[in-house]
Specification:
The chain is α/β, with parallel strands linked by helices. It has one domain: Rossmann fold (3-Layer(aba) Sandwich). 40% of the residues lie in helices and 23% in strands. The chain has helices spanning 15-29, 46-49, 68-83, 106-113, 132-147; strands at residues 3-8, 33-38, 54-60, 91-99, 117-119, 124-127. Strands 1, 2, 3, 4, 5 and 6 form a 6-stranded parallel sheet that branches. The longest helix is centred in the middle third of the chain and has 16 residues, at 68-83. Bound molecules: flavin mononucleotide. Flavin mononucleotide is lined by residues 10-17, 60-64, 98-103, 128.
């Protein structure tokens, strides 16, 4: 099994973080090495990104768009790709987001991250705190990502 990065932004209630943790549980249970990075706490080094076999990207809905920390990552990624694409493209990835009952982040999230490789599973959504069904879908996504490596 390979190594999986779960890159997400979570700042307000920990809703997106709870989804990220569940994806990590599923991936670890399937034998993968898992690294969780909250873009609210650190900016990911693109040299580190090269070495992951699969990635899950998650964001809260902020004004119907992805959160700033995750936007910084994809901007950094694009600039790094222009100098050396090796290890930065063509990875299996999963998507997840949380929202407060409205918003339209799904479209921008799916469009922006379609450049990353090929999507594994369906995009997972949570209205507020993730319930058991959402957490189980997250664990399943983690298993699928582990099996894609
Ligand atoms: C600056 C900001 C903008 C937001 N915009 C929206 C929005 O447009 N639509 C929506 O449904 N929720 C919106 N929310 C609510 C968050 O998406 C929601 O509370 C989310 O679950 C927070 O995730 P977190 O606890 O991982 O930070 C917004 C929250 C913040 C802080």
């Amino acid at each position: 099994m390979g190594s999986i990065l779960i890159l997400y932004h979570s700042q307000e209630y920990g809703n997106t973080a709870a989804m990220a943790q569940a994806i990590g549980e599923g991936a670890r249970a399937a034998g993968a090495d898992v690294t969780l990075v909250n873009t609210n706490e650190q900016r990911l080094d693109l040299e580190q990104y090269r070495h992951f076999d699969a990635v899950a990207f998650g964001s809260p809905d902020y004004w119907s768009y992805i959160a700033g920390g995750l936007k910084v990552f994809i901007d950094d990624w694009y600039i790094a790709c222009k100098s050396n694409r090796r290890g930065l493209e063509n990875k299996p990835y999963g998507l997840f987001y949380s929202h407060g009952g409205g918003g339209d982040v799904r479209g921008p999230l799916e469009k922006l991250f379609s450049r990353m490789g090929w999507q594994v599973g369906e995009t997972i959504e949570s209205y507020g705190r993730p319930n058991n069904a959402v957490l189980e879908a997250c664990r399943e996504l983690g298993r699928q990502l582990a099996n894609a490596t």
